[in-house]
Backbone:
């Protein structure tokens, strides 16, 4: 079950504008999603939306199995009652550091309409109370070069799959454990940017590495979770995250107040595209690539990969959210408008900067030799637990599950609290639910009971 | 035998190609079969399923769980394979241009199944049909 907030902990904004400190507002579990039983009405929207069938509605309240939750945030996206939220950082987290830096997801640039420049967003972000802000687009640019270099020397297994979306990593660990080696062993641009930035600040400002707090501005719960529990790092180079939604209001005000920015920082248009699905592969030299986004499509494509199809493809960029990070559940702007904004900004910058705006190749080559981009630790599979402790027990339960499923109405109505009849059948054989939690089974049993107690009818 | 399930596959049914392989994969995960073995079995199942769809009228694909192995028997009603040795040659295919346009017919079906499995057997009678049997050992 997700951790529940121990006190009522409303998110209110820092140093003045960012969320305020509340003891115990941190999830106690390894997940980033906090669940508010006061707001849950016991509908089954989240339960049906969850790609790993982790959620059940029990006693009128949603609960999630922590072993199955991949922090994708689909429950946050679909909940109409605000019963789930992401446990982001607070102003107290900022006060732990002498020097604070905001590292916004590139998605942040897409949230304020087509006329607002990335430079304006960065300046406004700084005015919220960070000592410094850092643009991620240049690192995405370098990341693309590193990916190309890796793909040209890699010997498979094919296709390689991007690790940008942490929910995708979790999904593979859980549901596609044999595809672990398909994951691209290159660290994410956000972690690499924080690593580089911390090095630079230590050298330039004489700060200790622990004095610097680098905070990500995140479009989703999955990236937030990856900071507190990274999969391929002992500890994240980031110190926490605020959501785009919670900084949106203060930022919008600051952007308006500041007006246009003179001498904006250089932005890589190849990097800017990373905010949306298709952006990561757009910057690659290797064109033998695919983008897949959205829960259902991702599951389908991963099934294909597991069956040995798509081996002729070199690289797959995959996102749980339907249009990449611009459709993250912690964003504000609708994703179609956000996509247009990214495209317009890229077009403007493409005209202004032209060729040569990218990071010099020699620099990337030197960093490659230093293994700067490599994942620090091996990703591990965490397969779903089987039905039994051994093959015989599992087979016996599988047969039982099939018998139970045959008794269920195949409506997948979720009234029992499980997302589908198949999930309910599994719960029954695992001893986590009763067959007659199904309303159809219950009605049938009641009718049978009534029929058998009736007096026989005589003419 | 611990468990058996039979699935029907229709020739020409490209729309549902791969669904049987996916269903068997899901059963194997529930049974706790090792991921690398599931993957090998899935690759073989997918190839076998597509072979039926491309070349046969229909088939029964039976999935059997034995104490120490999983076995699949694919018995199709179809034209049969005139020359099994030739069909086992990588790159050899009778696929029509239409099938090739869909990305099939690379001539790797049977060789792929053989490579993915620990045991492989094929029997064919011209004008009647073909039966494939392949096994992946669990130990």
Residues:
């Amino acid at each position: 079950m997700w951790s529940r907030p121990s006190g009522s902990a409303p998110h209110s904004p820092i140093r003045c504008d960012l969320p305020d400190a509340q003891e115990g507002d941190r999830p106690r579990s390894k997940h980033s999603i906090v669940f508010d039983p006061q707001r849950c009405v016991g509908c089954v929207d989240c339960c049906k939306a969850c790609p790993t069938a982790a959620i059940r509605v029990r006693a009128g309240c949603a609960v999630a199995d922590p072993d199955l939750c991949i922090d994708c945030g689909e429950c946050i996206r679909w909940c109409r009652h605000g019963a789930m939220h992401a446990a982001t950082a607070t102003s107290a987290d900022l006060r732990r550091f002498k020097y604070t830096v905001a590292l916004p997801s590139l998605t942040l640039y897409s949230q304020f309409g087509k006329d607002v420049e990335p430079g304006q967003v960065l300046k406004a972000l700084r005015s919220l109370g960070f000592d410094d802000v850092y643009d991620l687009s240049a690192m995405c640019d370098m990341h693309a070069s590193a990916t190309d270099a890796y793909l040209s020397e890699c010997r498979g297994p094919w296709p390689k799959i991007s690790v940008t979306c942490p929910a995708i990593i979790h999904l593979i660990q859980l549901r596609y454990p044999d595809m672990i080696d398909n994951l691209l062993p290159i660290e994410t641009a956000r972690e690499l940017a924080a690593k580089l930035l911390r090095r630079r600040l230590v050298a330039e400002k004489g700060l200790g590495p622990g004095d610097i707090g680098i905070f990500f501005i995140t479009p989703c719960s999955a990236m937030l979770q990856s900071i507190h529990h990274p999969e391929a790092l002992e500890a994240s180079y980031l110190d926490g995250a605020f959501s785009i939604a919670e900084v949106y209001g203060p930022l919008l005000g600051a952007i308006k107040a500041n007006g246009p920015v003179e001498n904006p920082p250089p932005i890589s248009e190849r990097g800017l595209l990373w905010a949306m699905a298709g952006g990561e592969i757009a910057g690659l030299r290797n064109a033998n690539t695919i983008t897949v986004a959205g829960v259902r499509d991702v599951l389908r494509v991963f099934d294909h990969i597991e069956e040995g199809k798509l081996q002729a493809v070199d690289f797959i960029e995959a996102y749980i959210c339907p249009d990449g990070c611009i459709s993250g559940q912690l964003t504000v702007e609708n994703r179609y408008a956000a996509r247009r904004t990214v495209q317009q900004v890229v077009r403007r910058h493409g005209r202004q900067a032209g060729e040569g705006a990218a990071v010099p190749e020699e620099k990337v080559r030197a960093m490659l030799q230093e293994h700067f981009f490599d994942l620090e630790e091996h990703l591990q599979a965490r397969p779903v637990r089987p039905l039994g402790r051994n093959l015989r027990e599992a087979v016996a339960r599988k047969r039982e599950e099939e018998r139970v499923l045959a008794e269920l109405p195949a409506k997948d109505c979720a009234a029992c609290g499980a997302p589908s009849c198949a999930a309910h059948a599994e719960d029954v054989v695992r001893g986590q639910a009763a067959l007659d939690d199904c309303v159809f089974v219950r009605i049938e049993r009641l009718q049978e009971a009534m029929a058998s107690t009736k007096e026989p009818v005589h003419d | 035998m611990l468990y058996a399930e039979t699935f029907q596959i229709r020739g020409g049914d490209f729309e549902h190609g791969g669904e049987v392989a996916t269903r068997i994969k899901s059963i194997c995960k529930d049974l706790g079969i090792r991921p690398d073995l599931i993957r090998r079995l899935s690759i073989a199942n997918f190839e076998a399923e597509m072979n039926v769809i491309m070349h046969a009228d229909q088939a029964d694909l039976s999935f059997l769980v034995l104490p120490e192995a999983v076995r699949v028997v694919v018995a199709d009603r179809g034209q049969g394979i005139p020359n099994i040795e030739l069909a086992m040659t990588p790159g050899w295919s009778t696929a029509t241009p239409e099938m090739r346009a869909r990305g099939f017919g690379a001539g790797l079906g049977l060789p792929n199944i053989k490579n993915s499995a620990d045991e492989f057997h094929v029997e064919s009678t011209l004008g009647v049909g073909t039966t494939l049997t392949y096994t992946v050992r669990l130990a």
